[in-house]
Design brief:
6-stranded antiparallel beta sheet, alpha/beta, globular, 25 strands, about 950 residues
Amino acid sequence: MPLLEPKPGALRPARPGAPAPDRVPDRAAAGTPRPLREELTALLGAEKVLWKVSDLVRYATDASPYRFVPQVVVVAEDVDDISAVLSYAHGRQREVVFRAAGTSLNGQAQGEDILVDVRRHWRGVEVLEAGLRARIRPGTTVFRANAALARHGRVLGPDPASAVACTLGGVVANNSSGMTAGTTRNAYRTLSSLTLVLPTGTVVDTADPLADEELARAEPALCRGLMELKGEIEADPALVARIRAKYEIKNTTGYRLDAYLDGTTPVEILRGLAVGSEGTLGFIAEVVFDTLPLDRELTSALLFFPSLPAAAAAVPLFNEAGALAVELMDGNTLRASVSVEGVPADWAQLPGETAALLVEFRAPDAAGRAACERRAAAVLARLELVAPVASVTNAFTADPAVIAGYWKARKAFVTAVGGARPPGTTLITEDFAVPPSRLAEACEALLALQAEHGFDAAVAGHAAHGNLHFLLAFDASRPGDVDRYAAFMEDFCRLTVERFDGSLKAEHSTGRNMAPFLELEWGPRATDLMWRTKRLIDPDGILAPRILLDRDPRGHLRGLKTIPRVEAEADPCIECGFCEPVCPSADLTTGPRQRIALRREMVRQPAGSPVLAQLLDAYGHDAVDTCAADSACKLACPVGIDTGALMREFRHRRHGPGEERAAALAAGRFRTVEAAARLAVAVAGRSGDRAPAALTRAARRIVRPDLVPQWLPRLPGAAARRLPTTRRVGAAAVYYPACVNRIFGGPADRPGPSLPEAVVALAERAGRPVWIPGDVYGTCCATIWHSKGYEAGNRLMANRITEAAWGWTAGGRLPLVVDASSCTLGLAREVVPYLTEDNRALHAELRIVDSVVWAAEELLAHLEVRRTAGSAVLHPTCSMRHLGDEEHLRAVAAACADEVVVPDDAGCCAFAGDRGMLHPELTASATRREAAEVTARPFDAYLSANRMCEVGMERATGHPYASVLLELERATRP
């Protein structure tokens, strides 16, 4: 047994509540039933079958109010895997649900039998015809696809608020639209073709000229049935008129019956039916979109009104003026948005009745924008606006930063309001549409209905298209609350259909919560056609049962999830999934949402539960140890939930007293530790990798694998024992070489100065000399202890470095320039909570600047660039993103290279100090997609701003990454 085992029971929930009614039952503690697991493993391979109860629980949640635990999770790699699973399901009478991002709001990404992950291995974008079209795999996010298209001045039509996380497979399967898509730019209207795997395993590429011929041979009954249904619909003029009328406003309730009218062949009909089918008719393996021009000239305003109906009444005026987006936000939404970074704090004081419109015009050029501004001004002159708080301007602007802030607040609607909901309550997101001319009337009716049922919902939506969203919170563990919600839903659906002839689902697709009300909206004739369509394409009913079609009138009340309270950092989470695309461990073990979902399931369980025991056993490795703790999730989360910080806290809880003492001792004697580490690296450089690798393997067995880093091949050699000589007199800044740059040297195959030598030389050339204090040895930014949760060591080093920096900088009169971005973040922000009161006051006076920022702002203008690289690829570190320094990295690189590329898939490398040496598989997984982009073409320089991130990227790509400041020194060397 290792000497420093984690404290047993340290991760057990401190105050488990009463067992929840929706807890995973004890019989599921063993995970997937053995016969199912063994059969799928034999069919697909063990690496594609997730069967532990912790796996099933982490996949049993999405952004919806529902929770269904699958029997097994299959991680499909290709169409062959999909076909094999479908064939297996047919033979065993089992059910299959496909899941990509899990951002769906109505339970579409959940299943009770075989759940197939089609995100992990299904990403990729191919830009076609100079951007006019794009071929996209279904696990690709909208944001990632648009990043590839932006270089060509093009963009996708659908623009859902969840674009950073939702995938194109889900966008098509739900016919998602968003802020500007309306009924003309949505997936149905802009989809060129798709590849569909039918329930039988037949693969249909709708772009293939021979597709109809091949489908007729493979599925003659299907082809015949589709054409018969088409003929039946077209023979009924009243039905045709009804179908056309239903799609004049946004509508995603049920199947797209207009596919029978728009398509002339079976394949064309299938293409239309697949859009919005929610995985009930087949698997969408690939899509090709027709793209739209990306108009870059914007003018936007956030306009405040005394009431929701008053704001709604102004919408037609902006529609007539040509606004592309008119977004509505009520007072509850605006007040909740103060939790979003950058939103004015005084919004918290807005009167309850206040509402706002976010209005945006877009144009291809400045002249077009000027015309938009004139039309916008004419509308403004007719409005009676209010300015209840000081930050309200009620003016149009072209400032990109201001506009981005408006949209950040709007897109955070669900998460911000959800994060502000009463603790322990479940969040319901509803989505409906009415004719835009009746929007104000619908707002009044909705407010009255909410009041009648005791709800104070938040309302927002795409007002230009008559599409409103509202959020309700209730406690799913209380039958009375569920009954209240059920009564509201019944009245709401009847109000929408009978009074407004509206759409019960405008863009979130039918889902579990509207399936029982399908016939209310469409009537028996059209609903029967939808059931017949399902039986024709999926006669055995294996795909996504009860998600789009459900005859149970109370089906929407089945599977509602409880939200037990967990640690304060994570408790506001509504499980939206925005965090998962940026998480380094999401493809390896768990993502932030899954870490929180697992924690909630622990709280649902009673003491002594075998399920709880299994979850705790897996959580240490899958959640705590393999978290890079880079807090990228905090940047992605609209309300700033930092799951990385929670994992660091859990690491601290697992430490025994001996481990904490050892860490504190290392902090107290860090000069000795630093020298020993540098010597070990130097010895390894002379003797080769074999001896240090064997030594670290033995130490990991004796101490604990998660505490002792393993020696990795191709680690850089040792840094010089002495730092460059500098003078304090006349220095423009104090230069602090981070301990990682005092231990490790630069790339072995890059001759020239070390990073400290380069920084000193650059400062001298620019006439801004720096001074390196003689006593920097033995100091550190404390990130070593902070990232591992060693509180005593962290506190000791944080206070030591703050006191030292205060003295070096003459009480903050000189800036402290730090040459590793993670250390800059650590010194600037992360040390603060661990400082004494006196040292916090000292820290507040310090000016801590990253060396790349210093170079961009203070040196570049005074340097002569004498030579440049042809091309450079950058790896922006996650610390730079936290600090907002990425543009400075680009600026310095642009001075050194004619072409600068930041990969679209650039993200956290997960080396995270020594985390990549503790868990090399974490870095391998985190860097896989970025590395594929980097290695797809040659570059002359591979640059970053943190030595260990450079090591991680070198291991991932095989190319020597170095500091951008080394390249700047080369470019300006006399």
